[in-house]
Amino acid sequence: MILKGLSFYATFKLPILTPHEVSSPEAEAITSVLHAYGAALKSRNVEDVVNLYTSNGVIMPPHFTAAVGTASLRESYTRIFSSVQLVITFSIEEIIVMSPDWAFARTTAEGTKTMLATQASEEHANQELFIMKKEDGEWKIARYAFSTMKPLVQDGVRRS
Questions:
Q1: How far apart are the C-alpha atoms of 124 and 147, rounded to whole Å?
Q2: CB 120 within 8 A of CB 109
Q3: In percent, how much of the chain has pLDDT > 90?
Q4: What is the pLDDT of residues 106-124, one digit of tens each?
């Protein structure tokens, strides 16, 4: 595989941890990070969220450009927390540890999203992918992307 002029050749054995096998110390550590992320969202604490990311962490929300690095993450979560209140429950669907330093988790988040400007609430249902990286011996969020699980057409309105 060629990526930005570099060649990578590798053979991987990927230990797959299904939802029923999330019991390894690595998976438990990743689970703790994901629960901390959920708690930080609930409390709308920007610094708590940002501290869960790697130093070059990225969030890729739908309809926005990616926020890359600590300063951009701080701006992004400040914007998010100033505009919405989330009351959600995270479910971890799977955790796959790819190497001693890389893993990913597939999750869902369901609940209610309230727009603070209008106090209008709506159902919230996302599917999410967290790419995790060990940084200084601790699992952190390296990349986070999500998309809605709501129907494309809802109440006669086509959603993007």
A1: 11
A2: no
A3: 69
A4: 999 999 999 999 999 998 8
CA angle 108, 143, 117 (to 5 degrees): 65
Q: How far apart are CA 4 and CA 110, in angstroms?
A: 38
CA angle (123, 80, 150) in 5-degree steps: 25
Closest CA to 112 of 83, 87, 90: 87
Structure tokens at 73: 């993450």
> Domain spanning 14-151 has what CATH number?
3.10.450.50
Question: Cβ-count burial of 120 within 10 angstroms (0-12 exposed, 13-18 middle, 19+ buried)?
Answer: exposed
